[in-house]
Amino acid sequence: MPGAVDQDTFDRSRRVGWLNLDAIFRTRVLMIGAGALGNEVGKCLALSGFRRVTVVDMDHVVGSNLNRCLFFTQEDARTGSKKAEVVARGIMDISPDARARAVVGRLEDLPGSFYDGFDIVLGCLDNIAARIHANSHAYHAGRPYIDGGMEGFIGRVMACLPPDGPCVQCGMNRSHAKVANMRFSCTGEGVVFHEPRLAAEITTTSIVSAVMVRECLKIASGRKDMTLRNTFYYDGQRNVAEEMEVPLDPRCPNHPPQVLQVSENHIMSGSVQ
Questions:
Q1: Is the residue at 216 inside a domain?
Q2: Do residues 137 and 147 make contact, with C-beta atoms less than 8 angstroms apart?
Q3: Is 186 a catalytic residue?
Q4: Contact 89, 42 (CB under 8 A)
Q5: Which domain holds residue 65?
């Protein structure tokens, strides 16, 4: 007969000394994007013990989503089910104690105060404009923002910890800004420019999402000292994973002068590596 230990869903997690499961259970997570990354991140959140998850996405399920999205079915693709609603239900199916909520709509339509209701923000997005939007709003709300992205066998994760660390926009260049501007070139209801569909496959998606949720576990457990301070870069073709430095950009609009001064002082004192 199995003992009490075997009946505890989180017994193996409790054996990781620094994990604070009570805090993880209480942490309010905002997950933006319910596509390939959102499916895998949602799964990892549910299995890791995150119970208060809000999923934001405006899109519906199509057939090309099915080879890398755990929660989507052929029936979802046939009926055009809303991605956010399907992923929220999937999280609760995995974790009966979870209370996942779906918000169907455009990220840009949400008020800035929306971010105040969460402890951690996750960006599971597939376009530069939305990524910049989520990054800036989370940073100004003082909420940790964990951003993931991939193309084919290449993936990356960045954890942004306001008020004195670099953000996603710090690591962007002029070509990113150009694409973002094109994305907003609209006439009436139509968008003039669409970013091209990128190559994607499930193993890279799984690795990127696992790293994103791993950083969530550290932040929720009060271990920001262990959190990524730069960008985690993964290349599945070369079997390489490494951390790449992202300096704070003094021209980035997300960092007021006083924050830049604090960061410079930390660097001078050697407290930031």
A1: yes
A2: no
A3: yes
A4: no
A5: 13-269
Does any domain span residue 5?
no
For residue 224, the SS3 value is helix
**Cβ-based neighbours of 127, under 8 Å, separated by 6 or more:** 183, 195
The answer as to whether 137 is a domain residue is yes
User: Would the pTM count as exceeding 0.70?
Assistant: yes
Strands (E), the chain: 28-32, 52-57, 101-104, 120-123, 145-151, 154-160, 186-187, 190-191, 231-235, 240-244
**Of residues 44, 69, 124, 186, which has the active-site annotation?**
186
Q: Give the count of domains, the chain.
A: 1
Instruction: Determine the residue type at 52.
Output: R
Tokens of 149: 């992205």
Q: What is d(CA 175, CA 23) in angstroms, rounded to the nearest whole number?
A: 40
Alpha carbon 114 to its chain's center: 16
Q: What is the CATH number of the domain that holds 71?
A: 3.40.50.720
Instruction: Report in angstroms the alpha-carbon separations of 13 from 24, 27, 203.
Output: 11, 16, 23
Per-residue pLDDT tens digits for 66-93? 999 999 999 999 999 999 999 999 999 9
Q: Kindly report, residue by residue over 9-50, the tens digit of the pLDDT.
A: 999 999 999 999 999 999 999 999 999 999 999 999 999 999
Backbone conformation region of residue 170, classed left if phi is above 0, alpha if psi is from -120 to 50, else beta: alpha
